[in-house]
Amino acid sequence: MNNTTQTTCPYCGVGCGVLATPNDASVAIAGDTRHPANFGRLCSKGASLGQTVDLDQRLLYPEVHGRRSDWDTALNTVADGFKRIVAEHGPDAVAMYVSGQLLTEDYYCANKLMKGYIGSANIDTNSRLCMSSSVAGHKRAFGADSVPCSYEDLERAKLIVLVGSNTAWCHPVLYQRMVQAKQDNPDLQIIVIDPRKTATCDLADLHLPLRPGSDAILFNGLLAHLNRVGETNELFVGNFTSGHEVALAAARDGAGSLETVAQACGLPPQDVAEFYRLFARTERVISVYSQGINQSSSGTDKVNAIINCHLLTGRIGRPGMGPFSFTGQPNAMGGREVGGLANMLAAHMDIDNAEHRRLVQGFWQSPRIADHQGLKAVDLFNAIDAGKVKAVWIMATNPVVSMPDADRVKAALQKCELVVVSDIMCETDTTALAHVLLPALGWGEKDGTVTNSERRISRQRAFLPPPGEAKADWWMIAEVGKRMGFDRAFDYGSATDIFREHAALSGHGNDGRRDFDIAELSKLSDADYESLAPIQWPVVNGAGKARMFGDGRFFTPDGRARLLAIEPRPPEHSPSDDFPLSLNTGRVRDQWHTMTRTGKAPRLSEHSPEPYVEIHPYDAKEAAVSEGALARVFSRWGEVIVRVKLSEDQQRGSVFVPMHWNDQFASHARVDAVVNPVVDPISGQPESKQTPVRVAAYRPAWHGFLLSRRRLKMTGLAYWSRASGNGFYRYEIAGEQTEGDWPAWARELLCDSDSKVNWVEYLDARAHQYRAVRMVGRQVESCVFTAPGHELPSRSWLAGLFAKDVLTDAEHSGLLLGKPPVGQEDVGRVVCACFSVGINSISTAIKAQNLCSAEEIGAVLKAGTNCGSCVPELKRLLAAGTEDAS
Ligand SMILES: Nc1nc2c(c(=O)[nH]1)N[C@H]1C(S)=C(S)[C@@H](COP(=O)(O)OP(=O)(O)OC[C@H]3O[C@@H](n4cnc5c(=O)[nH]c(N)nc54)[C@H](O)[C@@H]3O)O[C@H]1N2
Ligand SMILES: Nc1nc2c(c(=O)[nH]1)N[C@H]1C(S)=C(S)[C@@H](COP(=O)(O)OP(=O)(O)OC[C@H]3O[C@@H](n4cnc5c(=O)[nH]c(N)nc54)[C@H](O)[C@@H]3O)O[C@H]1N2
Ligand code: SF4
Ligand SMILES: [Mo]
After folding, report:
1. d(Cα 506, Cα 499) in Å, to the nearest integer?
2. Which of 27, 706, 788, 800 is the most core-located residue (most Cβ within 10 A)?
3. What is the pLDDT of residues 629-652, one digit of tens each?
4. What's residue 39's pLDDT?
């Protein structure tokens, strides 16, 4: 089709190529078969992009102090505010807090304005919460922040070790590539190291559910083992590395025997032995690591403990092997290229290096250059809290939700003199605190580049018109720069201009001394940039480079890779009598971070419609909470109220709460309010995976749910959470006291002042049960069901009625029962988001047709045949079916 645009997915760091075809009212989305990250595959989030590009809830105009404004006023307010505060208190009194979801061009401008023109390094990014331990680990080991591998190495490996990575849900297309690789090569072994049994374990030959935070002990033990069994690659170690003696000595001292390692990690010794044996005997091994490693108060050490094992064995720089940090955000890597972190300079140069500062300042011809590191995210918000930083510009991130000790972050912003927020949405927990709101172009409207986990630069291209007065992030930054008096430096006509400058800087004074070099791309014409095909950096002679370090040359002063002596440390705060459980946080399959976009898509809201805590049945018993009930999860720092899910996939002593929910989607589910603000001393990355907490029952007087075609304001409820459905919103609700007059209560909650509507109601005062359906003509407009306990009908059949313009008599008569009339099926909770296949349909088909595999389910119901994200769950349903039968 000729109106199809080749672009890149705006979600995870896999960086899949997407084909977008706008139609009248929607956008058709398909995977790009030519893109080397995905070869046409997409996951449920990518495939649902069309459901998230509408303008509902979009921020379309600038606002100043809560009122609609114009660009001139808004930009002047920002520029004047920043200028005044810099003049009165110096450059370190202002800050930017940016994001791995900015395009490289936006990011480059922000960094240039702060470090070269305002003259402060107080620009940090949400990548601090995400990749900074990997960055620091790479720099210590390789002398540069280089990811050595390519995705194709996953297909060429014989062993893949996934450490602290829930690949099936967080990098689903790479997971699909591994599934395929295992089918093509049954010898491929996969090991998952994660305290939880996750969907990723479905593919694992071995799962090590280690004690939270104990990874460094395990990898130190592996290092000592590799040496013991003669797997040290003497040639590689001798010629290309330094530090292996101290690293080995520390590993031997710290780790001890296999039994002591197993005990410290809470693992069966035979499983540790099997892991060590497989790693030792397999030359082509990839160790993938993600947030289970990075988000730790000793994350950098853990990264190096893993890299050590690859350096000792020389398993790096060749096909099918290497340490491989999967990046989270679409442009986490691009942000690192432009020096988005407070301790870096542009083009992989260092702020602490005087020569680098001279190079960058010379290239920019800037009046100044920041000469000391800026504040890292947690310190930055502390400084705002303390009144030292008086103005902050937040771009493409939602820190009131995603920062640890989030209530403190919220309080800090409430006190801050000038809070500027650029976002695409009008109502987020962070936009609520802005003095100036700047409407940004979103995915599909903006133009630029992103770099994925394998260092591949891809274009994001616009295929939709700019909505309202929204503008590109780079444009806002450049305009503020100009208004602060830096006209020449920010006189860009397009994203292309910025990209060429960024590319040129990467080659400036480089001569092979720095890993990041795309200088050749500085010669791209506008047309070349427009048609730029995905390419991996560094770019040499027109070609990208798949693998780093194949020549054994590293970017340290002596050119040798460094092995580091690692002394494992436990998480900063351990569970205690008051807070006996360790809180783990992370992602669910179909939501993206703070849900501002994925929360809109009905298809993505069905898999996990409510915030929850997953807890082992044993701990649930101790805490006196039961399946489906509500619970409080609280720490020294704060509290959430979420639904209880019992699961033996959790190890005892550990609970999991997703990071996504926030005040826009639930009453009390911002889990970062509970998370401790402890950071890694080297990287500054917070320990988002281990906070001591207590779980306790929360017993409201009644429970209920509400389905409504309109989005409603939830006031006066003890608990609520909202999910998007097809043509309706679903609210789970609870109240602390039984209402005296339920009908009046319902009319207030549903904002009913309309006399033409028809209420169908049922009240059992003695049983405290109330059910009401608000009808407009023969169409359901909303309904609310309450009961003292959980004896409420299934939501799925009622939800299905919202797709109907006219109810049949039979459906009408089923309304207050909330049950389908005889002969109609209730499909149940949706498992396959792509084809909306419900759990009841799947279970029925498994039983009725004796289905034995996910493929057979796919053949009958289509479930699992598109993105494959639900295949692990289909397998669990199959297994549960067999248990039932036995
Ligand atoms: N669906 C979805 N996908 C996403 C995102 C999203 O929001 N939603 N976000 C993207 C981003 S920005 C990122 S950074 C990535 C994150 O991708 P991942 O890092 O894979 O995701 P997480 O769920 O944060 O955590 C990974 C796993 O670490 C485990 N873990 C916790 N503690 C430990 C420990 O002590 N040791 C070990 N070995 N493991 C531990 C958790 O149980 C969890 O299963 O996902 C990206 N992809
Ligand atoms: N407890 C806990 N906390 C965590 C984590 C965890 O595992 N556990 N993970 C951490 C990690 S790895 C990450 S990456 C962070 C993510 O956390 P955040 O970055 O805070 O989350 P997002 O929801 O992605 O925020 C992006 C914001 O940018 C807006 N936006 C989207 N597109 C654009 C655009 O083009 N321009 C502009 N200006 N705005 C745009 C969105 O509407 C949204 O408000 O969370 C971190 N916090
Ligand atoms: S794996 Fe999914 S979310 Fe990640 S880039 Fe690909 S389609 Fe987007
Ligand atoms: Mo992330």
Report:
1. 11
2. 706
3. 999 999 999 999 999 999 999 999
4. 97
Could you tell me the CA-to-CA distances from 744 to 14, 706, 710, 740 in Å, in that order? 51, 15, 19, 9
* Percent of the chain topping pLDDT 70: 99
Ligand 1 pocket residue status of 631, Cβ below 6 Å: no
pLDDT digits (tens, 9 = 90+) for 97-119: 999 999 999 999 999 999 999 99
Query: CATH for 830-880?
Result: 1.10.10.1100
User: Any idea what the Cα angle at residue 458 is, between residues 182 and 30, rounded to 5°?
Assistant: 65
Tell me what pLDDT residue 811 has: 87
Q: What's the rounded Cα separation, in Å, for the pair 645 and 624?
A: 13
* 57-84 average pLDDT score: 98
How far does the centroid of ligand 2 lie from the alpha carbon of residue 163, in Å? 23
pLDDT > 80? residue 823: no
Among all bound ligands, the one having the nearest atom to the CA of 460 is 2
Taking 80 as the threshold, does the pLDDT of residue 366 lie above it?
yes
| pLDDT 10s digits, 120-157 | 999 999 999 999 999 999 999 999 999 999 999 999 99
The DSSP bridge partners found for residue 434 are none
Domains 5-52 and 581-697 alike in fold: no
pLDDT of residue 161: 98
The first and second tokens of residue 115, run together, are 């470090």
Fold of 66-129+333-543: Rossmann fold (3.40.50)
CATH homologous superfamily for 132-325?
Answer: Dimethylsulfoxide Reductase, domain 2 (3.40.228.10)
Higher pLDDT: 757 or 397? It is 397
Ligand 3: atom nearest CA of 18 is 7
Spans of all domains in the chain: 5-52, 66-129+333-543, 132-325, 581-697, 702-813, 830-880
Q: At the fourth CATH level, which superfamily is domain 5-52?
A: ADC-like domains (2.20.25.90)
Could you tell me if 631 and 698 are in contact, meaning their C-beta atoms sit under 8 angstroms apart?
yes
Q: Which atom of ligand 2 is nearest to the CA of 672?
A: 1
Give the nearest ligand 2 atom to 131 CA: 12
Mutate to test the pocket of ligand 1, among 9, 206, 587 (most ligand atoms within 8 A of CB): 587
How far is the centre of ligand 4, averaged over its atoms, from the C-alpha of 266 (Å)?
28
Assessment of whether the complete model's pTM goes beyond 0.85: yes
Mean pLDDT of 177-186: 95
328 Cα–ligand 4 center, Å: 4
| Beta strand pairing call for 27-31 and 639-646 | unpaired
693 has which bridge partners? 581
User: What DSSP string runs through 482-518?
Assistant: HHTT-TGGG--SSHHHHHHHHHHHHHTT-TTSSS---
Thinking of the domain 581-697, which architecture would CATH place it in?
Beta Barrel (2.40)
Is the pLDDT reported for residue 882 higher than 70? no
Q: Is 46 helix (H, G, I), strand (E, B) or coil?
A: helix
Residue 420 tokens, joined: 């500027």
Q: Is there a contact between 200 and 166 (Cβ–Cβ < 8 Å)?
A: yes
Q: What is the pLDDT of residue 884?
A: 43
Give yes or no for residue 150 CB within 6 A of ligand 1: no
588 CA distance to ligand 1 centroid (A)? 9
